[in-house]
């Protein structure tokens, strides 16, 4: 809704409303007021409604403009977020050490190529699984490290040096 269209809509609505008031005042259509206002009161009612219709039109136009601006900003932000996501994925994939990311509930959300090779599993086998299901030993607590064992699909037992860290966002916590 453009500002011009909202003003035109308000003008048409006002003309129809004022016409209805005039027709009711002169008895050409049924009136729904208890007492018929005098001509001066009718003019005041019409002027107040004229101001109200155009105030609403102005506000509707501003709101529509703000909504368009917010939509453009949202699209820009979504594009930036997508770029950051791709950068993040490529950075994680390029790390030579195995990296596994999981939710706070322990569901695996990301496994880089090095981790897939070490565990000898493909991404489909790992994503969504509970991280502790991948290892035979209990994982170290957050911000600590230790050794854990895992079984490969071929039954070979491998030992990994594991460091558990939590994602901390300043001002928001974990």
Description of the structure:
The chain has 174 residues and is α+β, with helices and mostly antiparallel strands. It is built from four helices and four strands, in the order ααββααββ. The strands form two sheets. The protein has a two-stranded antiparallel sheet with strand order 1-2. The protein has a two-stranded antiparallel sheet with strand order 3-4. Strand 3 and strand 4 form a beta hairpin. The protein is rod-shaped and about 95 Å long. It starts with a helix and ends in a 10-residue tail after the last strand. The mean pLDDT is 90.
Write the layout of secondary structure elements.
Layout: H1 3-25, H2 39-94, E1 100-102, E2 108-111, H3 113-119, H4 123-126, E3 144-151, E4 157-164
Antiparallel strand pairs: 1-2, 3-4
Quick recap of the structure?
By secondary structure, this protein is an alpha+beta fold. It is built from 4 helices and 4 strands, in the order ααββααββ. β3 (144-151) and β4 (157-164) form a beta hairpin.
